Amino acid sequence: MIKYIAVFLLLCSVFTKVTGQLYQGESAQVEFTSDAPLELIQASSKELRCIIDPEARAFAFRLRIRSFEGFNSALQLEHFNENYLESIKFPNATFEGKIIEKVDLKSPGTYEVRAKGKLTIHGITQERIIKSKVISDGNTLRISCSFSVPLSDHAIEIPRIVYQKIADEISVEIAATLLRNTP
Amino acid sequence: MKFLSVSIGFWVVFVTLVMSPARAELFGQQLHFEAVTSNRLLQEAGLELLYADADSRLWGGTENGLVRLRKSAPISYDLPDGRALAVSAVFQSSTKELWIGYRSGDVARMKENSLIYWEPEEGHPASTITAFAEDQLGQIWIATYGEGLYCISTTGRVYHFGADDGPVHEEIYSIQLGPDGLIWAATDAGIIRCGYVEGEKIIKLFQDDITLPDEIVLSLSAEKEGMWIGTHQGGVAYYDYTDGALCIGVESEALGPVIALTRGVNEEVFALHRNGKLSRWRYSTGTCLGGVEEASPATQAITFDREGNLWLFDDQEKLHFAQLKFTYPQVSVHRIQSVLAIEEELLIGSEHGLYRGNPARKEDFKRLPKTEKLNIISLAKVEVAGAEPWILAGTFGDGLLICRAADCQLYTEEDGLSNNNVLSIAVTLDSIWLATLGGVTVIPINELRTGEPKFQKITKLGEQFIYQVIAVKDNEIWIATDGEGLISYASGVQKKYVQSVVNTDTFSLERIVSAVYFEPSNIGWVNSQKNGLFEIREAAFLPKTVKGVHFSGEENISALLVDAAENLLVVYPGGVDIGVNKGAYWVSFGHSAGFKKGGSALNAYSPGKDDVIWLIVGEQLVKYQSNYTFANQPFTQLTNITASGVPIGKTQADLAHDLNHLVFEYDGNWLSDPEEVRFRYRLLGQDLDWVYSTDNRATYSNLPPGKYTFELQSSLYGQFETSEIIAHHFRIWPAWWKSWWAILLYMFIAGFAFVYINKRQQLRRTKIAQLENDKIVNELTALKAQVNPHFLFNSFSTLIATIEQSQESGIAYTEQLAAFFRRVLGLSTAETIPVSDEIELVENYFFLLQKRFGAKLELVIDVKEQSGTLPPMCLQILVENAIKHNTVSNSQPLLIRIHRTEDYIEVSNPIQPKINKESSSGFGLSSIKRRYEILGVNGIQINQSENDFNVRLKIL
Fold first, then answer.
1. What is the pTM of this model?
2. Which of B885, B858, B890 is nearest to B951 (CA)?
3. Which residue of B124, B144, B153, B157 to mutate against A (max A Cβ within 10 Å)?
4. Which of B100, B58, B53 lies closest to B78 in space, CA to CA?
5. What is d(CA B299, CA B47) in angstroms, rounded to the nearest whole number?
6. What CA–CA distance (Å, rounded) separates B99 from B730?
7. What are the pLDDT digits (tens) for A76-94?
8. Three-class DSSP category at B74
């Protein structure tokens, strides 16, 4: 995990130094839904940090797991942090990579892009392509996307007793606004 | 400068020297391209790619979408949203799923005969799809021009292979599954090999130690153990994966960039060059052999089908195809009559002499000296140890030419030859047999070795026309004659065959036999001009039908033989019929395979090297590749099933009762000759026999419930015996109300109903019986009442007293009494009586009582409305009851009131209990109740307050 944070920080510093043309998170919302036969669990976080380099079409997203709120009970939140995602051991989820489409996000417009990168949750990294919609007006980027995270992808183990209460694929929705950062 | 030019010259010479034998192999051999369609739709849309799938379907990619090319007009396949996108790749997976890639980056698949978009969660590419491939794990790979590669993993997730993953050049022209199990991608930066195994991306460059003829690779075509590589400027190359060798097809450099490679048969590949030229290549231990196909039109797209046809689309928007089994070597010899293969070379006998040369080299055939006036119609060779074989050439009219090395001598009738027309030559270990128009002549070889040939006549066939002699196992000779049938010679014994008995039928072989052939196994084939083809098995002649479309049986057979793949070949002017598996199934090749009608040659074939058989068809030299095996049956397929207008899938086997109008649509795909496809089908459970059809649909209406199997076969020319049966099992269920459980349910309900009704009726019967009984009791009681002794006694006492007072009153009383009894007797049988009668009766009764009680008893009748009826004597009983239970005295006179409310008559009296209660059976009230019950009415209400007792009777 430290490696990824390091990479993230490195990315940040490299971006700012070299290009000077970065979009950084202004506000963001991550919401997840577990729609299991016996229970619907929803939680959200506003602590999604994101950064996009439009020149390199590179991006990095980071989310503190402990920032999730919601859930159906306090106990559930505790289980989420302590047992399932082990947020002390793996405090962050990250997604970093490159946009496949050769788009120039600096020019205003609406773009359907595919973000290809490494999604790390619970310390397990998976390569994913996530379809996203980006609305740019030059200075701000509004990003929205939804995708699913199979628990098995990230070695998140659910005790047999709560099988019916937690879906084996968690759907995630992200809405973020990024501002152009000119030094 | 001079030095340089010399060195270039040297290299040119060197290259020519080294490469010319290699390229010569296929050079100058030509496929016959037959134009099939020039369709307006194709002309408008412009076909950019062709793809023949494993189901014998030919797909075309146009600017506006996918089309399927058929015998009739092409069918276009629209995308679900109606967009007209340019098709850039078509691929059929091992699971028979058709993938279509578009220039826009969209990807579609064929489902149930219509296109659906491929829409993974990851989204589809945004760059042109250039190719698809499938790896050993069943993962589908998609190549793009601009975005690299995509792999659809076994879990369904899509992975991208791009520049950020390693040395992946993202502009990919073509991909193929390589012999190493990796996907090989052709790019501007050479070949990249990719794989996705157990969650790991594998990216490798092409072998470091191998230098490709050009870095820019445009096309690839995989073989089991190697890869054909089409480059931009370096032509075609082959990389042998087993030993790492790379060969380069030099000539293709000059033909320009290799934009497409299509796999042919037996490690052959076709290369399409940007200039529209087509070249054909074969890999043979370290060398690339091949060259340009000169007869091909300017080509834009190529594909190869399962039937052995190479399809191409030319720049004139015309579709052509060529059958690979037959090639037409470009030789400069015309009017060819006979052929003989000797090693790499061919001897060709024509009307203008005898030629010798290598068919792989154009303009290489040299006429043998002094043969220009000879018409060579038969050829044979005699092997000579350690030297060139001797050549025997039979002429038409000029005798026999014998060439021993360079020494050629012509022998005629003057030398002892029986006839100067030598039609066929057979060579055994010790003799040469000649079939002439003047009988059979034999030349002993031993004498020929030492000196001049000696000609010996077979006396009995001295004057006959003999068409063919063949030698079987070096000691058995078979002779086809005109007039004597078929004759065999073995160890000096002659046998004649003119007819045969098979299963009590006599088949005449007929006396004119034009061709005969024996396999080493001693199974033979013979053609008799009138009665067609026979199979000879242990000296029995079994007639064999040739089911091809072209051969009629009466044509002159120019060759009859069995090839290395056990196919029986019938060669005649204008065509070749191939009897697969010794004639079990026939496939016919005619003009579309390039055969021309023309003069017929006799016995004109010669087996060459590498399973090649040289044939003469219509005076043309044909190279037949007997080791090329292709599909020979149409691909049969149920395309669509609708039940009562509802499309149902091929897996839906259970149909509701109302889905009983079934339409089966099917295809028998055969690209080579679609007109010759025939169908037969039957519905087991309905049809008793096969239904034969050329139509593409079968309809069944109003099928009753039951189990069915639809069986379908397609074949060429109606040869169904060997074709695969496609079966579709289904079941029409009965309507639920006709199902067994419903019938069971009905039986239960009926049973219950029966039992219930029975029970109820029994109950009613008992009740009626009881009521009847009650009624009888009632009547009896009424009768009893009528003769109540007290009443009588009282009445008589009263009567006496009255008579004492007044005789007249006495008479009146008696009359009243009599009237009362008469009335009672008259009424007691009736169910109901009118209210008026009842009132009259009670008044009558009261008159009798009043004489007794006088003022102590008072009856007030307040019934104005006298309509309606009542059960008889109810009022009388109530009045009697009132008197029975109450004190009637001077101090306590009893007032009984009878009055009517709307529906009721009420009888009421104050309660004045008697001191000595009269014993009571309680019969009165209950008898009234019963009477109402008989009538089915609950008509009596009894109200008792502290002081008052009243009974209300319902008026009926």
1. 0.76
2. B885
3. B157
4. B100
5. 11
6. 30
7. 899 889 888 999 999 999 9
8. coil
A173's enclosing H/E stretch is: strand A169-181
* Phi, psi angles (nearest 5°) of residue B507: -105, 125
Q: What is the mean pLDDT of residues B902-924?
A: 76
In this structure, which amino acid lies at residue B326?
A: F
Q: Is A98 on the interface with B (CB under 8 A)?
A: yes
Contact at CB, A128 and B126, closer than 8 angstroms: no
Q: What residues have CB less than 8 Å from B588, skipping those under 6 apart? A: B548, B549, B550, B551, B575, B576, B577, B578, B673, B676, B716, B717
Question: CA B749 to CA A73: how far, in whole Å?
Answer: 55
Print the SS3 string covering B174-188.
EEEECCCCCEEEEEC
Q: By the 8 A CB rule, do B281 and B292 touch?
A: no
Separation of first and last alpha carbons in chain A:
29
The C-alpha torsion from B39 through B43 and B48 to B51, rounded to 10°, is -10
String of DSSP letters for B675-706: GGEEEEEEEETT-SS-EEESSSEEEE-SPPSE
- ipTM for the whole complex: 0.86
Nearest CB to A129: which of B160, B164, B201? B160
Count Cβ atoms below 10 Å from residue B729 Cβ, excluding itself. 12
CA B529 remoteness from chain centre: 41
The pLDDT tens digits of the residues spanning B365-399 come to 899 988 989 999 999 999 888 888 999 999 999 99
Which of B104, B106, B119, B122 should we substitute to test contact with A (largest number of A Cβ atoms within 10 Å)? B122
Both tokens assigned to B434: 């000649």
Q: Is the predicted pLDDT of residue A23 greater than 50, yes or no?
A: yes
The span from the CA of B846 to the CA of B880, in Å, is 9
Structure tokens belonging to residue B57: 């379907």
Closest CA to B239 of B281, B296, B300, B197: B281
Q: Give the strand pairing for B236-240 and B226-231.
A: antiparallel
